[in-house]
Protein BPS1, chloroplastic-like
Amino acid sequence: MVLLVEKLSHFLKNPNRMENDHHNSEALLASSLQGFRSDVSKIMNKVLPIPEPGTEQEFQFMSLAWIQKCVDVIPLTHRAFAKLVVEIDHPMNKWGKSQVEEYLDYSLNLLDLLNSVTSGVSHLSHARLCISHGLSLIGKNSYSLALEHLNEIQPYDLGKEFKVERKIITENQESSCSGKDLIIHQSLCILMSISLWIFGVLLSGICNTVKPYMELRKSAGLFDDSLIRGWDSILANEIAKSYGVSKEVKEINEVTRNLKAAVANGKVDEHVTELTRRLKGLEELLQTIGKKTNGLFSEVLAERGKFLNSLQYTSK
């Protein structure tokens, strides 16, 4: 976001830009915040559209093919935030202490959550390799040995690796915040809540358990807000019905069970072909998710590093 603010400032500067005195107007600041909320809403609608009832896509929410799109929301909301910072003319070196702490808290949580995604992806990749090895043993007619590797993909418990320590701003701290700092605070709260919700969906789909979604949706605390209320009401129902198990994993597990049952009569060719195809699809999805999360991790880490450097420069 630090880099984005610098880049966007060059494009947003124009003769009609609001005068500094106007920036101090509560009405104009409120309008800027509403514009940010509108931008975030448009991003959500574009990246994660809610299908109309009765369409083929209606029951595809718990599909990794849909869930992997969640990652795309984060960098786009960062751009919207950078745009807001430039519009209200409040660069990061002018933020109050609470806003600085909130940003650092937000970026650190993002890095932790991205690490959790990486762990979940590694678990799925390992499970996929085990099943693939079982298929190769069937090709060698080593059926008894193959059965030891043809195990269903199990849910992944993030355990101690999974933690979100969100900084809680007290009422006194928030009441002491005003003007541009208040807008930054409110927009950072939106970023944090959206990100927690997004990663809740993403991690539940990857780890095949409802736990990440249920925990992160509580931390997000934005479900009375129109920004994500529609998505949450649908996803909460879909995740509960599926127990958090993604469509792809559910299908792979079903074909795996059918293959193991078919080993007894030797009629395995059809199941082997089907399982091979589905494992290939899972591999491609995991590669896409891995590439997206690695890219976002590098971006957030670079932004956080530059932010910290700017603080050191300002303090001198």
Q: What stands out?
A: Residues 7-23 have pLDDT under 50 and may be disordered. The two ends are 23 Å apart (CA to CA). DSSP finds 13 helices and no strands in the chain. The longest helix spans residues 269-315.
